[in-house]
Design goal:
alpha/beta, 34% helix, DsrEFH-like, Sulphur_relay_DsrE/F-like, 120 residues, 5-stranded parallel sheet, single chain, Hypothetical Protein Ychn, Chain: A, Putative peroxiredoxin
Length: 120
């Protein structure tokens, strides 16, 4: 059975520890060979834009740009359709490799066999 982890992160700079935990868990899972799908929703949506991860600061935490880069290199990053629309973010605005998709795709990912889902 293949291992897949779907992580939905709702927190951004408004809740930095929760945000950092989500990105850290996703990056560690990718490095461990787990198939990872990270969903950016709510305030974390801003990290789909170039340069925004570099603005994030949390003492004693891995740099968010490095975590995002590792997740994009071996996993999948998705920006919520509605969250993007509410913030005026369009596909051409996002970091290369980030897709925009909605609830139907999220549900299909979390309902697949062998999937574990986490929400931060």
């Amino acid at each position: 059975m293949s291992k897949k982890l779907v992580i939905k992160v709702t927190a951004g700079a408004d809740a930095p520890e929760r945000c950092s935990q989500a990105f850290t868990v996703a990056a560690v899972a990718v490095a461990s060979g787990v198939e990872v799908s990270l969903w950016l929703t709510g305030e974390s949506s801003w990290f789909a834009l170039p340069g925004r991860a570099a603005e994030f600061e949390l003492p004693h935490a891995a740099p968010l740009p490095d975590l995002l880069e590792s997740i994009l290199a071996a996993g999948r990053v998705t920006l919520c359709t509605q969250c993007a629309a509410r913030r005026g973010i369009e596909q051409q605005d996002t970091v290369e490799g980030v897709r925009i998709a909605g609830a139907q795709v999220f549900v299909s990912e979390i309902m697949a066999d062998g999937v574990q889902a986490l929400v931060y």
